[in-house]
Amino acid sequence: MKMKRITFLTLIVLITTFLFSSCVKDLNVEPIDPNVNTLNNVFKDQAAYKRALAKLYASFAISGQTGGGGGSPDIQGIDENFGNYLRQYWDLQELPTDEAIIAWDDATIKDFHWQTWSPNDVFLAALYSRVFYTITISNEFIRNADKAMSSASGAFLTDLTHFKAEARFIRALSYWHAIDMFGNVPFITEADLPGAFFPKRITRTDLFSYIESELKAIEPDLVPAKQNEYARADRGADWFLLAELYMNAKVYTGTERYTDALTYLNKVISAGYTLDPNYQHLFDADNNTSPEIIFPIAFDGQNTQQYGGMTFVLHASNGGGMPLNGIDGGWGGIRTIKNFVSKFNIAQSNFSSNSQYQSADKRGMFFFDPANWQWDITNVGTFTQGIGVTKFKNVTASGGPAPNAHATFVSTDFPMFRLGDAYLLYAEAVLRGGSGGDVATAVNYVNQLRQRAYGNNSGNITAADLTLDFILDERGRELYWEGHRRTDLIRFGKFTSGSYVWEWKGKVQSGTQTASYRDLYPIPINDLNANPNLVQNPGY
Fold this sequence. Notes:
The protein is built from 16 helices and eight strands.
């Protein structure tokens, strides 16, 4: 299922048309064209199950049935390219933080860095719909796999067992996004057959228990860690998602689970993944060869053509004279702010003679042209105010063309889970009092990351340096623009009402606190109005 090797065949699963209102409509409609796939013929042979599974994975990367940015979108109510799962996940995890700010005037997009969004926000509705679209098609796959398994045998039964476990993992991953961003949400599984009903509301605590039980239940049915095809879930991905769930358990349920997090982090760390010796390689177009990535969202310039996902990240972050790094031009949208680059001990004066200053910590990949850019952001809508980010590239580690190169659509995969993150989560869980780890090991893990970053041991820390404030900053330095920052800041109590402010937080240039209820996004107003079982999150 390697997207750089195998085209994601698009399957139209008709049942998903009910998704976009919680009040499900029973539509007994079939297209006239016999070449169009429906539920009656999608699962017509053994090979079709793998193709259908590919559609589940593809739901994170592409937004419709035809590719190229238009035609047959998965969800309605927003331009297909804006309605991309990874694009909106990235926006909602990065734009409200100190790591990213956007110049565009599309609808309400600036509200995210300002933290002034409302329940009728189109971008919130888009991600919410994408989450439940993926959950819905996963449910449908699981139902059909169950039917097939009742009569399957041999290699086909083994494949179906793995496929079903992967579909349950994908569903759990989307439910994790739901619990993290929206809290108490609609709840549907394969047991909820299509028809006219209002999905019930599940509380954050109960959804936590469901995700936990699912991830534990599927572990023996997943392929062992590092043994599956690239970009497919295995036990390593399962353990990592469990660790993420446990690390944020206090936020989700009010109960700490750091010992449980360490149990699964130790499993991940012992599974045979290794740090990539070249940090930059993790974000290049051939990062599918990195030994560090545990679970990616895969992209391919020829076979996953969409103006969302990594195509969005690379193009939207380029402009103002920045190097193109394998793309055909920048869109001048997203960049970072001075508060964040200061964590690398970088100041405006460092760019006085070079627009791409290289700090001692080589993870800081920034662009600033002192002749044409402005360090302080006085106008959020001007892309060249702020600092450019050059972390992701559409070229190989050697500087060559991307695999299946296309100047517009990129081949760089999104590293959702990787070993460097596991090392930092281990250190944090130890500091927070979890059993099953120790400070000396935590310091060693952090120093392995810093030795890679500095090229020597000049950046090494001691046990006395290992504090929670240090860990939060180090997570920023190691993982920026990888979709973690909002969740991290909330876990550390610094996203909204805490003491930490940054440029334009709260729609004030110098930054100001915001209301703590914004640690959760609202339930989109359309779904709230459609489903009487739902309750709006407090504050909205």
